[in-house]
Structure of ABC transporter permease:
Amino acid sequence: MNEKTRAGWGLRLWAVFVAVILVAPLLVVIPVSFSKRASFAFPPHGWSLKWYASIFEDPRWITAIGSSLLVAVLVTALSTVIGTAAALGIHRVGGKAAAAVTGALMAPMIVPGIVSAVAIYAAYLRWHLTGNLQGFLLAHTVLSMPFVVITVLSSLTGVDPTLERAAASLGAGPLRTFLRVTLPGIARGIGAGAVFAFVTSFDEVVAASFLQSPQIRTLPIEMFVSVTNEVNPTIASVSTIILAMTTVVVLVPMLARSGEQRQKQAKR
């Protein structure tokens, strides 16, 4: 066995080890959510769906789920539009100015979450944006937009600039050139960025803990309150639902992309 083969097997074993570490908690949370007793004992003593039923019977959970979905959908739309526009500007300007703007936009991904949350809270107190939908939208958009910028910039590197110049030379205006030439080339990057923005907003808990109010409380905050005040598998049921939702959100674009590739190969 040569050195490359040993390195390949070592990398595979490490990948398997990391996958087991990441998946192991799920193998506990999911069965506990079906427990019959009001405890976190594992393995569960009996099986029941009553904890899932309790979620949809409790107005607190319903309100929290609705608030999270509303915020996540609106933030996804805002982040996708603004992030795509920013990526287009950065790609076309280039140079040191573009690098500086990119670094500023990436700051929410680099700065620790608690630092960003405290800074947002301090600013929002002056602007009276705490405890309302507008504050959540602005804060989550700032935290989610970098993912859109990254994916769209990556897609733009694969777009041939001569196609845009050719479209312009044939009389197409900037908007038509973007819709007919640029947008199809970066559509997958925009879609990937939108998925990341949705998941980031839906799961955000640090900044939300500072911005919450009795009028608006997202699902992660309700989960935190439930963990501290209650001892039953309801939180495990909510976690399982979130896991299923995020898995669907991530897998659907991947399956659609693989389907398109198979169709292209079949036509060839």
User: Anything to note?
Assistant: The two ends are 39 Å apart (CA to CA). The CA atoms of residues 150 and 193 lie 8 Å apart. DSSP finds eleven helices and no strands in the chain. The chain has a mean pLDDT of 82.
